[in-house]
Amino acid sequence: MTLLLRPAETADDLTRYVHGEAGSRSFEVAVNGARCAGCIAKIEAGVRGIAGVREARLNLSTGKLRVGWEGAAVAPQAVLRRVRDLGYGAQPFDAEATLDADAAQGRLLLRCLALAAFGTVFTVGLTDALWYGGDDMSAAVRATFYWLAAAIAIPVTLYAGQPFFRSAWSSLARRRTNMDVPISAALLLSLGLSLYQTLLRGQDIYFDAAVMLVLLLLVGRYLDFRLRNRARGAARHLLAMQSLLARRIKPDGDSETVSARDLVPGDRVILASGERAPVNGLLESQATEVDNSLVTGESAAVPVLPGAPLQAGAIITGPAAVLRVTARVEDSLVADLARLLEAGQQTRSRYVKLADRVARAYVPLVTVLALSVLAGWLVVGAPLATAATHAIAVLIITCPCALGLAVPAVQVVATGRLFRDGVFVKSGDALERLAEIDLAVFDKTGTLTTDVPVLANAVPPAVLEDAARLARASRHPLARAVAVAAGAGPVAQDARETPGEGIEGLLEGEVCRLGNAAWCGAPRDGSARLWFRRGDHTPVGFEFQETIRPEARKLIAALSMRHIAVEMLTGDRGGPAARVAREAGIANWCAGVGPREKAAHLEQLRAQGRRVLMVGDGINDAAAMALAHVSIAPGSATDISQLASDMVIRGDTLMPVVEALDVSRRARRLVLQNFALAALYNVTAIPLAASGLVTPLIAAATMAGSSLLVTLNALRLSWRRAA
Q1: pLDDT at position 4, please?
Q2: Whole-angstrom Cα distance, residue 659 to residue 408?
Q3: What is the CATH number of the domain that holds 259?
């Protein structure tokens, strides 16, 4: 979908899209039509050529071009004009408008596919009648059937072939070629020759070949679109988070609903319990509690006192709060994570598959070959129609369907098998990348552990029961752990909770408290996370620990047997991290690691040439997962981590990680076999087509047969389990 600025828009209209201060400004552009690494290089180089621009970075996954400059020397219109002059659509980047662009492309492909299927059924039915009953038909009846086939095949092929025609024209307009160029040529020439022969009442009419060819190609194109679209889900989800609505307090005290992008430092925002903070700010109202697990990876809710900072992405779990904005949405942690995520996906989008490398040489070779066949037959005296028929047969029979299916066919079979085994594969080339890993990095909280705190120290039964009577009145995770340890029982009289402090109530007339050290008058020794005090008695501390997954040690051992090194990164404290690493059998680990540090560590590993598998479950892992060679999230992970990952595990076990690794390695072998089969097919088929031994219809059938061959080879992956 290409959206352009209206002519009436002025420089003042675009100032709201420019971010930053006078010393350092940036402008984000939504780019349409960029499809490959060559497009990225062309656009970035062209925009950097504008005087004053110091940075130009295009992300292929989101279609967002970020342009940075110093001072006020660069006009946003100049950036838009430069991108459009390079042959691409451009508009100021708007998250809400961008979220629906891929949906429109998917609907177009689906419409084209449905129409091509309809046209194939009717056109093949008409031409089959000519093949099997043509000898008994009069010339007038045969001509009528031909014209009926033309009336269906021509409009169907022209409409359904839009994705190929547009791509080919865009490539040729920039004096380049891609795989859609010979495809479009074969479709148009088949229609043109068939229409010409229909006018002359000839015999070489191949409307069925054209419409059948476009149907087969659209099936592959739509499957490829679905896989790629899933891979871009995380970036779109973070864009949506930056487009949250917020209730801003007006000067007169009333509230108004605005987009998070309209919030500026100094604004005051109301956040109800359960709502997510859209921007960074300071808590201005009473104390409350927030869930920072999506931001920091901390496993427990934390208290926030008046005046304390609150980061974007944190969820209010206590009483409603008022937040004073300190930064715009593009300067929040969520925006930082989005930029890190985009950087990771940008690197991944440059992962050039073997099929693409072969296609770059394949396309011009096939085009030259078809023209040579046409010229050769004309030189030996063949009529133009005959020479064109043989040239079209070459274009069709060498159509890169088998080459294009060599990878997707294996991916579809492998992902179907893994789905049955509890692994949902979201990214099309994830299995290819998983087969290459040599290091696995795990998050701790919620990944290697179940994220359910349990009581870790011995507490006198009477004290435990008294504390549980207060704990049963709270929904705090640590209070729930105390209640679970004590079992069912009564609740303390007049129990009331003070957010950020703890719970207070009466037990046999004595005032009792369950909460933090200061609330209960206990020493801050750093070990106990919860304290209980009854009357004037000495406070008793409660210590907690996470429960490690029962299969964690088996998983780490299985990866080691497959020569995969293992590390653990966590934002939690050193004590819990050391215990989990020891129980899981992980020698290399690091605690207190934030989102940026995780991403930096992954960058460092990649610079060392390591191919990393990242397994994580929180938003603090999303950037690192995007930077990893491949990433997997457990089914209990947050939405953003699941979207950022290439695979999601269903169920409560991580052992499917090993199954996915085994399947990916075997899938890689089958992909290479499919490339060999596709090459063998072309070596055999091209001479037959060039010599005139096959018609365009037979060429289309042969081309479909080559696709079937690579598909059957891929099905071997489901016939027996990988070793």
Answers
A1: 36
A2: 20
A3: 2.70.150.10
Separation CA 63–CA 83 (nearest Å) = 12
Q: Is 4 inside a domain boundary?
A: no
443 catalytic? Reply is yes
More confident residue, 657 or 394: 657
CA 366/CA 363 separation, integer angstroms: 5
With a cut of 80, say whether residue 528 has pLDDT above it: no
d(CA 620, CA 618): 5
Distance, CA of 555 to CA of 644 (rounded, Å): 22
pLDDT band per the 50, 70, 90 thresholds, residue 5 = very low
d(CA 681, CA 399): 11
Chain-centroid distance, C-alpha 637: 15
Q: Are residues 494 and 639 in the same domain?
A: no
**Which among 516, 529, 537, 532 is positioned nearest to 470, based on CA atoms?**
532
Q: Are residues 638 and 684 in the same domain?
A: no
Contact 127, 207 (CB under 8 A): yes
Residues in the chain, total: 723
Nearest to 421 by CA among 630, 23, 721: 721
Over residues 215-260, the pLDDT tens digits come to 877 876 776 666 555 545 555 555 566 656 788 888 888 888 887 7
User: What gap in Å lies between CA 584 and CA 574, rounded to an integer?
Assistant: 15
pLDDT at residue 469, as a whole number: 94
> Rounded distance, CA 715 to CA 589, Å?
40
State how far the Cα of 417 lies from the Cα of 431, in Å rounded to an integer: 12
Comparing 283 with 204, the larger pLDDT belongs to: 283
Q: Residue 28 gets which letter from DSSP?
A: E
C-alpha 325/C-alpha 243 separation (Å) is 16
Relative to beta strand 18-21, strand 612-615 is: unpaired
Could you tell me if residue 1 is inside a domain? Answer: no
- CB-based contact 230:418 (threshold 8 Å): no
Q: Which residues contact 121 (CB under 8 A, 6 or more apart)?
A: none
Helix, strand, coil proportions of the chain in percent (round to 5)? 55, 15, 30
Terminal alpha carbon distance of the chain? 45
Could you tell me which residues are beta bridge partners of residue 291?
315
Any idea which residue has 């031994």 for tokens?
Answer: 693
pLDDT score recorded for residue 321 = 87
Beta strands in 187-226 (DSSP E): none
pLDDT computed for residue 237 by the predictor = 58
Select which of 443, 466, 617, 646 is catalytic: 443
Q: How far is the C-alpha of 165 from the C-alpha of 600, rounded, in Å?
A: 43
**In a shared domain, residues 364 and 503:** no
Cα separations in angstroms, 708 against 48, 491, 577, 609: 47, 68, 51, 37
Dihedral over Cα of 597, 337, 41, 629: its sign: positive
- Domain end marker among 285, 303, 331: 331
Tokens encoding 650: 């269903």
The answer on pLDDT for 442 being more than 80 is: yes
Cβ-contact 257, 267 below 8 angstroms: no
Confidence at residue 288, expressed as pLDDT on a 0 to 100 scale = 86
For residue 134, give its domain range.
Answer: 98-176+184-231
User: Higher-confidence residue: 589 or 337?
Assistant: 589
Average per-residue pLDDT for the chain: 78
pLDDT number for residue 723? 39
